[in-house]
Amino acid sequence: AGEAMFFFISTALLPSVALGMAGVRFLPERSTAWLLAIIGGLASVLALFVEFSGLGAERSLMEATGRLSFEALNPISIGHAAATTLLAVICLLRYRMSTAPRLLMVILSLAAFACLLLAGSRGPIVALVLGVAVLTVVYRRWCVLVIVGLLLVPPFLIDGSPLVSRLTDGAADESSQERVTLQMSAIDQFSLNPVLGSAFIDIETKTYPHNIFLEAAMAMGFVGPIVLAVVVLITLLKSWVLIRRQQLLIPLLFIQYFVANQLSGSLWGAAPLWALTAVLMSSTMPLKKKKCEITKISGSTAVT
Q: How far apart are CA 277 and CA 171, in angstroms?
């Protein structure tokens, strides 16, 4: 518990407070999307280079697991870094840019997409498709969803693709079976202690159930998932407000990491989810109030 608390405070709480105080106003979408695309794209390029150059052969787990991963970097993390990169690139497609930036964007996207497929992690794929689906429904740009769908077709034509094997053999997958067991155990612990909860981890395995709603119920009784559901609902509504204002990046990333923590994640380790929640909670004021503030600022500038 002490280690989990330290991890939560250092990687989730403090960054979330800082980002919440800064808010969307200090996260301009275009520059933030470029920053994420470059960082995530370079990480993808480096992961591919280390794997296929043989430079990190002694640290690679590709041969043992069939998925792009290393001793200190699991395939889920690689997959979500790639998914974040692709979502950032999708946001950048709305802006005009010269040939050189577009070429860079294509290179980073290809590297991220390759990592996404080689990691073979289902969560990032689901999160990416859901984010694209939301954009498609909101802006009625069905071509984007079609393009993403077409990009996901080639891996299914390749024999031995880690993503295909994970999707088609999900029921027999050892990781999936383990998570189902953990989640059933969390439900059992909740049923035994529905008011006060049982513990913040599974008593027998000493790990989290890989679903934040089940974890909240297991740890805090019925109050936990109710409070979590209220927070998520408010954050989704604020995400919708930002989407309607043509600010896509933060809502898309929130959707990604909300989905991620339904499939693999813990309340105390969900740093990206809490950081995005803090930004959304603090920065989406009603339109009338925002217009009023803009008017005041303009008036004071004119007087000056």
A: 33
**Phi and psi at residue 114, to the nearest 5°:** -60, -45
**pLDDT one-digit tens code per residue, 44-77:** 999 999 998 888 778 888 888 778 888 888 899 9
- Residue 265's pLDDT is what? 83
For residue 277, with 0-12 CB atoms within 10 Å meaning exposed, 13-18 middle and 19 or more buried, which class applies? buried
The total of other beta-carbon atoms located within 10 Å of residue 79's CB is 29
CA distance 91 to 304: 37
Among candidates 128, 109, 149, which has minimal Cα distance to 255? Answer: 128
* CA separation for the pair 84, 76 (Å, rounded): 12
CB within 8 Å of 72: residues ≥ 6 apart:
59
Token pair of 60 as six digits: 């690679």
The residues pairing with 73 across neighbouring beta strands, listed in sequence order, are 70
Q: Rounded to an integer, what is the distance from CA 84 to the centroid of its chain?
A: 7
Distance CA 179, CA 189 (A): 15
What does the block give as tokens for 82? 């790639």
The amino acid occupying position 282 is S
Phi, psi of 241 (to 5 degrees): -60, -45
Q: Given a cut of 50, is residue 97 above it in pLDDT?
A: yes
C-alpha gyration radius of the chain: 21
Closest CA to 258 of 278, 219, 227, 232: 232
